[in-house]
Amino acid sequence: ISACLVGSEMCIETAIIALLIAVLLPALRRARDVANRAVCASNLRQLGIVFLTYHQEYKGHLPCAGNDPGCGNRAWVAWYLPDHYTGSLIGPYLSKAIASKILLCPSDDPKQRRRLTYLMAYPWSYSVNDEIFLHWSRYNMKPPHMTIQRPSLKILAIEESADVIDKGCFYVAEVRLYKKDLLSNRHSRARANVLFADAHCDF
Predict the structure, then answer these.
(1) What are the respective helix, strand and coil percentages of the chain, to the nearest 5?
(2) What torsion do the CA atoms of 29, 158, 103, 60 make, to the nearest 10 degrees?
(3) Which one, of 84, 177, 64, 173, lies nearest residue 128 by Cα?
(4) Which residues contact 157 (CB under 8 A, 6 or more apart)?
(5) 201-202 vs 194-196, strand pairing mode
(6) CB atoms within 10 A of CB 76
(7) Per-residue pLDDT at 27 exceeds 80
(8) Widest CA span in the chain
(9) Residue 59: which region, alpha, beta or left (left: phi > 0; alpha: psi -120 to 50)?
């Protein structure tokens, strides 16, 4: 009889533990997602400060958009080079360890990303606005002087969807003409972190 009672108590305890796990796991998952979204937003804000610092130091110039290997070492992030850090123009403003962290959303896993366009898959989570940073070939290899009007309303960079991200910039024309959905759904089905030209981030 005692053995049966012990067995029954163990079954009850196991059931209670299983119930608690079932209740707590979704809450823990939501808490982790909220924390990852906050880290992602912080990453973009730090990039915004770097971009503004570069813009000020280089008297209104911005680096290339990083759209393809033709940018060479003139891009904000040289994702197509073996050493992304050394060839990136934001490198002098960030340590190598910090750069590798703030370029990647904690909810993103580039190892699962398929190669879309170039010889390698884009390894980071964020892309910049091609209409602000500009394609290198548009200005004959020389960075243009860029004055950003109403910076609090101009999108500088986004957390781009892993399904479409394949380079260091996104094309606004793709949204206008083809209604292409570029924003990531890592943190929400309808919203993503977006960096504005005054370095504030919104979700």
Answers:
(1) 45, 10, 45
(2) -150
(3) 64
(4) 44, 47, 48, 51, 126, 127, 128, 129, 194, 195
(5) antiparallel
(6) 26
(7) no
(8) 89
(9) left
- Residue 70 CA to residue 74 CA, distance in Å, equals 9
pTM check: above 0.85: no
Nearest CA to 159 out of 136, 139, 187, 132 is that of: 187
Distance CA 167, CA 158 (A): 12
What is the token pair recorded at 130?
């091609």
Nearest to 156 by CA among 128, 191, 136: 128
Predicted confidence (pLDDT) at residue 44 exceeds the cutoff of 90: yes
Mean pLDDT for 99-122 is 80
Selection from 97, 75, 86, 47 nearest residue 168 by Cα: 75
Q: How far apart are CA 44 and CA 48, in angstroms?
A: 6
Rounded alpha-carbon distances, angstroms, from residue 110 to 104, 121, 122, 164: 9, 8, 8, 12
Q: Is the confidence at residue 143, as pLDDT, over 70?
A: no
**Among 78, 48, 49, which Cα is nearest to 65's?**
78
Residue 190 to residue 187: CA distance in whole angstroms: 9
And the tokens for 203? 């979700």
The C-alpha atoms of residue 78 and residue 68 are separated, in whole angstroms, by: 9
Q: What is the CA radius of gyration of the chain?
A: 22
